[in-house]
């Protein structure tokens, strides 16, 4: 598939040409040319009429299969561009959804992608019906008014059915999440911009082999794995990568997946520190925007600056300081930062920050249990192992047990009549 790409930069904010080209390559397209313009959005064509003439000449000379815009097009703009260029028109979010479709493997991911596609198509079909009624014979994908109306009904029906199925999956996930919490697990979500290295980090922490490639949107299916963080039971979940200006319809479609971030005890926000600061800044702010939209900024957030092996220690330290300053200016409180290289397995700094953060959670505390009746020791140890992590046992006339336990799960111990009090971590 051969394409011509078009990027309209806002006067005060330039889009990333490199990211747009990477998206096109991820979709498997051959890029014939990229046309760029800096201007405010034109209401009719998105780009200006003069630049449209330039694109028209390129289309005539290069004969691409599609013209892909890096900007979001309104249904009216997409139709006007098609009338002028007489070639298939696609915008950035159609491009992203096409990549999603190729990457989706599980039933949930496929349903989410289908829902997002239908939500995208809905205003296009409505625009087609409006134009037909105005006397413009512009159906949807060559369909007449009756067929287009029927397709609109089908979209609404199918969206309803998908939402029902996703709600069932969401409910099942909630049950699993509650069971894990009851078993004493701490829940950690990996979040961040696409291709920041989240899946590679998951593999290193859990000694797994989840698919991790140097390409955009490798992960669409939620992956949860367990590991022990210095004796503590932890579940870590890899989530779909963010992208700049993530539209609400994609956030809504992937809500059941992104919900893992909202429900996590700790969020690890992975940032690619190997890129120039303007790119690091743009992607960090885009990630904060998504977390804000998800209402997840009240979670403890640790920023993991990944790929520091590709830059010097001084450069990584400067970016760490700038991220802390940027977060403060945006009124975002971070629980800590860590410089890591997931590819090389250098994650010690992250593990240190994670442990400090977990120990500060209200739900997970160090307790000291004193048992005066020897016959109760075995029963208490059994309960502790089922709801927490044993740290030490001192046997004697009065047995002392030190263990990390979720504060809300000590009811079974108190029923036994043992002395139980919060202790200070060593």
Instruction: Provide the helix percentage.
Output: 40-55%
Shape: elongated
**Which consecutive residue ranges, at least 5 long each, have pLDDT under 50?**
none
- Find the count of extended strands (DSSP E, 2+ residues): 14
GO cellular component, one term: cytoplasm
Protein name: GTPase HflX
Pfam families: GTP-bdg_M (PF16360), GTP-bdg_N (PF13167), MMR_HSR1 (PF01926)
Binding site for GTP: 192-199, 217-221, 238-241, 306-309, 341-343
Summarize the structure.
The protein is of the alpha/beta class.
Summary keywords:
GTPase_HflX_N, 4-stranded parallel beta sheet, alpha/beta, 426 residues, single chain, metal-binding, Rossmann fold, 14 helices, 6-stranded mixed beta sheet
Explain what you see.
The chain has 426 residues and is an alpha/beta fold. The chain has four domains: 2-90, 3-Layer(aba) Sandwich (Rossmann fold), CATH 3.40.50.11060; 104-164; 184-359, P-loop containing nucleotide triphosphate hydrolases (Rossmann fold, 3-Layer(aba) Sandwich); 364-422, Alpha-Beta Plaits, CATH 3.30.70. It has 14 helices and 14 strands. It has helices at 17-26, 49-62, 75-85, 92-103, 107-133, 145-182, 198-206, 248-253, 255-262, 277-293, 313-329, 348-359, 377-387, 411-415, and strands spanning 2-9, 30-38, 66-69, 88-90, 186-192, 223-229, 232-238, 266-272, 301-306, 336-339, 364-371, 388-394, 399-406, 419-422. A six-stranded mixed β-sheet has the order 6-7-5-8-9-10, sandwiched between helices. The chain has a four-stranded parallel β-sheet with strand order 2-1-3-4, with helices on both faces. It has a four-stranded antiparallel β-sheet with strand order 12-13-11-14, with helices on one face. α1 (17-26) packs across α4. The longest helix is centred in the middle third of the chain and has 38 residues, at 145-182. The protein is elongated, with a radius of gyration of 26 Å. The model has no long low-confidence stretch (mean pLDDT 86).
């Amino acid at each position: 598939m051969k394409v011509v790409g078009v990027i309209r930069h806002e006067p005060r904010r330039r889009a990333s040409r490199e990211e747009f080209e990477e998206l096109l390559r991820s979709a498997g397209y051959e890029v014939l040319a990229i046309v760029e313009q800096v201007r405010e959005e034109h209401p009719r064509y998105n780009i200006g009429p003069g630049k449209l003439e330039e694109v028209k000449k390129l289309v005539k000379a290069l004969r691409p299969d599609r013209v892909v815009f890096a900007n979001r097009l309104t249904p009216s703009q997409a139709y006007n561009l098609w009338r002028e260029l007489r070639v298939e028109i696609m915008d950035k979010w159609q491009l992203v959804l096409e990549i999603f479709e190729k990457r989706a493997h599980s039933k949930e991911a496929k349903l989410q992608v289908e829902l997002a596609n239908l939500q995208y198509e809905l205003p296009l079909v409505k625009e087609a019906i409006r134009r037909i009624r105005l006397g413009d014979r512009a159906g949807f994908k060559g369909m007449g008014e009756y067929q287009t109306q029927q397709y609109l009904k089908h979209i609404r029906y199918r969206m309803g059915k998908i939402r029902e199925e996703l709600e069932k999956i969401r409910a099942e996930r909630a049950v699993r999440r509650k069971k894990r919490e009851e078993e004493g697990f701490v829940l950690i979500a990996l979040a961040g911009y696409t291709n920041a290295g989240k899946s590679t980090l998951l593999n290193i922490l859990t000694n797994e082999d989840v698919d991790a490639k140097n390409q955009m949107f490798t992960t669409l299916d939620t992956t949860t794995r367990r590991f022990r963080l210095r004796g503590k039971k932890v579940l870590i979940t890899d989530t779909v990568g963010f992208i700049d200006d993530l539209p609400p319809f994609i956030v809504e479609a992937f809500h059941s997946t992104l919900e893992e971030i909202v429900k996590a005890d700790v969020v690890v926000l992975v940032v690619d520190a190997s890129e120039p600061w303007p790119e690091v800044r743009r992607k960090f702010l885009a990630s904060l925007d998504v977390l804000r939209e998800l209402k997840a900024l009240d979670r403890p957030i640790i920023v993991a600056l990944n790929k520091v092996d590709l830059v010097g220690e001084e450069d990584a330290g400067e970016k760490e300081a700038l991220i802390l300053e940027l977060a403060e200016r945006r009124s975002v409180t971070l629980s800590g930062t860590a410089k890591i290289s997931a590819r090389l397995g250098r994650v010690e700094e992250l593990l240190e920050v994670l442990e400090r953060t977990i120990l500060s959670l209200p739900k997970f505390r160090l307790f000291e249990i004193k048992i005066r009746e020897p016959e109760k020791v075995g029963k208490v140890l059994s309960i502790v192992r089922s709801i927490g992590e044993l740290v030490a046992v001192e046997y004697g006339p009065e047995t002392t047990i030190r263990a990390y336990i979720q504060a809300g799960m000590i009811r079974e111990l108190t029923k036994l009549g043992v002395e139980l009090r919060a202790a200070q971590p060593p």
